[in-house]
Design goal:
Layout lengths: L8 H16 L11 H17 L7 H12 L6 H28 L14 H14 L3 H9 L16 H15 L4 H14 L7 H30 L33 H27 L2 H24 L4 H8 L3 H19 L9
Helix pairs in contact: 1-2, 1-4, 4-5, 4-7, 5-7, 5-9, 6-7, 6-9, 7-8, 9-10, 10-13, 11-13
Length: about 350
């Protein structure tokens, strides 16, 4: 089979699949030189050269043109789009991994910007890096144990809580974009929390809300794993806890964007208790949905979806700051439950390929 430009489908799929494999194993140079983007592009170019050698009738110019068409959103057959998405997702995570490694193991000696304002492009890239880092297994392990992410690191005994560890990763990512970490943190707070800055466009606000939600999930899951390790409860071995926390603007104190200096045991126990309660609530909601017949569940989820869309639409119309916080804190418990129900169900079915999970 060929594309509309007579490029064999097999060529495209082979390129995407080989690039994906190459990126998974991609390492920094011995001295840490070179940008992460350049390393990824070079690896993809090498893969393309190898693949083209097997298709003598296709020139590099032709395949580059076809790849640009793919990137512009032109619809291709499903197996091509699937292979391309897998390569792009792998490239994004590889970029996050290499960026962290470069700035942790080979921190460049350069001045970081401490004045002015964070450009929209930088904010978008920073939020994307934070989201990507939370998908890396080395980061997930680090949040739980402080285990070194790279060989150049020692066991981290200074940061006792997942929240502290994630905050440190955020600081590294902000510096990788050329901005002082303290300055960047204050800019994020000013733009999204104080309401005194310029209006935030809907796309940027939505990305920020998604990032906050994923951060809360990451910290909560890490906290639960710590708690389970401490309890050493063998009866609960193998049970997957479903944790997905909805974004709330008045929950800033539970995310690493908010600085805290309280690290005593009582605070840790309180965090663990809150995490346990959140996990129990969400498990009970999921169990309730799974026990419904299909028609009842469809009706309940349709109501939850309507509530979620209405909530988001109203929240987006309000300016950042006290007015939005007041709106979010005024939501009734029944609506809060509907929002959580819709969030849990959509995220759970996505993880199961669009199908409902089964009861254990």
């Amino acid at each position: 089979m060929v594309t509309s430009n007579n490029i064999p489908s097999e060529l495209l799929i082979s390129f995407f699949e080989e690039s994906t494999k190459s990126l998974i194993d991609l390492k920094l140079d011995g001295d840490g030189n070179g940008s992460s983007r350049d390393l990824i592009l070079d690896a993809q170019k090498r893969c393309l050269t190898r693949i083209l050698s097997k298709f003598p009738g296709v020139s590099e110019q032709e395949i580059q043109q076809e790849l640009r068409r793919l990137g512009s959103g032109v619809i291709y057959e499903a197996n091509i789009e699937k292979a391309m998405k897998e390569m792009n997702d792998t490239a994004r995570l590889t970029y996050c991994r290499l960026t962290l490694q470069q700035w942790i193991c080979y921190p460049p000696v350069s001045d970081l910007t401490k004045t002015g304002q964070l450009p929209r492009k930088i904010i978008m890239e920073f939020l994307g890096l934070v989201q990507g880092s939370l998908q890396l297994q080395i980061v997930k392990d680090y949040l739980v144990t402080g285990k070194p992410m790279f060989d150049c690191m020692d066991q981290d005994l200074t940061k006792k809580f997942p929240q502290e560890r994630l905050e440190w990763i955020q600081r590294i990512l902000m510096m990788s974009l050329g901005y002082d970490a303290d300055f960047g943190t204050e800019e994020i707070k000013r733009i999204f929390f104080t309401g005194n800055g310029e209006d935030v466009d809907p796309e940027l606000l939505q990305l920020f809300q998604k990032t906050i939600s994923e951060m809360q999930v990451g910290v909560t899951n890490a906290t639960l794993q710590i708690q389970e390790t401490q309890l050493n409860d063998t009866q609960e071995g193998g049970v997957t806890r479903i944790v997905s926390v909805s974004y709330s603007e008045n929950d800033v104190s539970s995310t690493p964007f908010h600085e805290t200096s309280i690290h005593d045991d009582s605070v840790q126990e309180e965090q663990l208790q809150m995490a346990r309660q959140a996990a129990i609530l969400q498990q009970s909601i999921l169990a309730e949905l799974l026990q419904m017949d299909e028609e009842t569940r469809r009706i309940e989820l349709e109501r939850a979806k309507h509530a979620s869309q209405g909530f988001q639409a109203k929240a987006m119309k309000l300016p950042p700051g006290e007015e939005r916080v007041a709106f979010m804190t005024s939501i009734s418990p029944s609506v809060q439950r509907q929002l959580l129900m819709y969030k849990i169900w959509t995220s759970t079915t996505e993880k199961h390929g669009g199908k409902p999970p089964t009861m254990h």
